[in-house]
Amino acid sequence: MIPSEPATAGPRFGLLVPTLMEFEPCGLDQLREAAHIGDHYGFEVLWVGDHLLFDSPILESTVSLAILGSMTERVKVGTNVLQLPLRRPLDVAKTFATISHLTGGRLVLGIGVGGGFPTEWEAAGLDLKERGARCDEAIDMLGWLWEGKPADGEFGTSPGLAIDPPPVGGRVPIWVGGRADVAVRRAARCDGSLNIWVSPSRCAQIRERVLQLRPSGVEDFTFGLELLAHIDDDVDRARDHVRHCLSRLSLDPDAIEKYTAFGSPEQVAERVSAYVEAGVQHVSFYLPGEGWSEQARRVAEEVLPLVNGQVASAAGSTR
User: How far apart are CA 293 and CA 226, in angstroms?
Assistant: First the structure.
């Protein structure tokens, strides 16, 4: 039996499915396991990463979304994040409208400017310097194509013929990744933010900035976070694991470790709760390394009840 939809008043949670195979392979069996965990434990979104070419094997993101969508009944699926300017808006609009249609709207389009792996941009014949401008226009273009609005942009045209069948509700929710102010401004135009390698204080600043930029309010906006985490009752071993993963990802452990969560379930929950207190509404767990399924289950069974308890206790103390 699949649990009912989690209450939206408290924090919601997601999982980054290991379609980027830095540490272990990912095939249909792994996707089935992720789908079961997502549905059974009441996660809000199962996320997949995105690259066309990369220095580690990675599954194509939209194909992976479609397969995960067909394997699930309740949990949403989404990109974390799709390199939007690397693709034609028409293709993105059509593909995501179809996935939305087939999943009953259980879809989030997480987007970013990308650019971290220049080789794929060279292969696509695109100028990396244009990615910001292309991304901004593509956000508009998706809306024009879903609505059937005629419009001309610098990089493309919407002829005035709507994508059919349309996405459920007329459009796919768009969450924007990135922690720089230009990314925050981009996110404020859309439906949510999805940040990584940020502190709770920076999350609070992002929230305040979005509030300034959205005079209509943020009732329909989601403040999201992707958090690299590892659970191990031996905190030193957990820290070593996190630092090894960061090094494997070509990131500086000394600079990035402070933006991660590791240790016992209690220690990880305390870290997550700090982000929730800063205004984060959706926390997606990035669980690199071998044993993804075991880590995902530990998050669901051991960490999330603690976080929800801490949040409820904090809410009660302010009444």
Answer: 18
